[in-house]
Amino acid sequence: MKEKLEQLKCEALAAIEKSDSAAALEEIRIKYLGKKGELTAILKSMGSLSAEERPVVGQMANEVRGAIDAALSEKSTVMEKAAQEAKLAAEAIDVTLPSKKAKIGALHPLNKVLDDMLDIFQSMGFDVVDGPEVETDHYCFEQLNVPADHPARDMQDTFYLTDSLLLRTQTSAAQARTMEKTQPPIRMVCPGRVFRADEVDATHSPVFHQIEGLVVDKGITMCDLKGVLEQFAHEIYGPETKVKFRPSFFPFTEPSVEVDVTCSECGGKGCRVCKGAGWIEILGAGMVHPNVLKNCGIDPEEYTGFAFGIGLDRLTTTRYKISDIRLLFENDKRFLDQF
Ligand code: PHE
Fold first, then answer.
1. Ligand 1 center to 252 CA (angstroms)
2. DSSP assignment string, 265-313
3. What pTM was computed for the model?
């Protein structure tokens, strides 16, 4: 019987050694240690042994069971570990591989120039205000000294929505709104989109952008207007830029001027950008007309002021040497990615 046990142990250990799956191990366990297994059968037959032999064989049988048990669990640990390692190897991620580049957006060139402009005016103490794009005839024209049937209405080709509602043709509407709401001192700029029924070409668009500026206080003169606008032009275009004030006409300012700067492309010699003139017009301005002050509830005997309207689009196209204004509005990513 001892030999049988010894043989059984050898067989079992060899089978365990050779087995290659959890199922195979379980089969071996059942075959040798199960209720109907071979070791159990041997134990059951121990009744036929003598009283001296029984404990010896019993102890040996226990040892065999222990050995088989230990081998089974050791093998199963080894197999689990191998399976785990294989899984890790299969799922390994190479963290040193370069990742996909996430594309991020950028500011539109118009917004870049606008940010710079607002910086300049805010550093001079101007507030930034907002105004509606759908405006009333009242604020866009009437309050600005342009009554109905005034010939100056022909200066701007207006999109009317109703008799009294329109798409603002100029940010100047924000002047009237601001003066009605606030008593001087006033120092504000109002950037925004404006609309005119213009044909589209390389330099014209029915939608474009302006920044309105307004200063009203006691003792404001044309000198203040010139100082502020010259300072602005030098900060935007560089200190070597020359600034020219030409007499002009706007119904809401008196006197009125248009302001040119030396072409940033050719420095004033004349080139394609400035169409040979050497100068580029960037804004209209003037001293706020006394009628406008009066219309908005400010006493023109006590206060004076100046206003200006800067075209943002031309400033942007000349700064970035953009040959066609339409590029600013088409949102072609290949164009926008260059900024
Ligand atoms: N609103 C005028 C325009 O659109 C510009 C302007 C603004 C002129 C303020 C004078 C004062 O042409």
1. 8
2. TTTTS--TTTTTSSEEEEEEEEEEPHHHHHHTT--TTT-EEEEEEEEHH
3. 0.71
- What's the pLDDT tens digit per position in 237-292? 999 999 999 999 999 999 999 999 998 888 889 988 788 999 999 999 999 999 99
Per-residue pLDDT tens digits for 203-241: 889 999 999 999 999 999 999 999 999 999 999 999 999
- Nearest atom in ligand 1 to the alpha carbon of residue 172 is 1
- Structural domain span for residue 59: 2-90
Q: Are residues 80 and 201 in the same domain?
A: no
What spacing in Å lies between the alpha carbon of 287 and ligand 1's midpoint? Answer: 11
| 144 and 293 share one domain | yes
Q: Which two tokens stand for residue 261?
A: 């700067």
CA of 173 to the centre of ligand 1 (A): 10
Whether 181 and 121 map to the same domain: the answer is: yes
Q: Residue whose CA is closest, atom 9 of ligand 1?
A: 308
Q: Please indicate, yes or no, whether residues 65 and 199 belong to a single structural domain of this protein.
A: no
Is residue 200 domain-shared with residue 317, that is, in the same domain?
yes
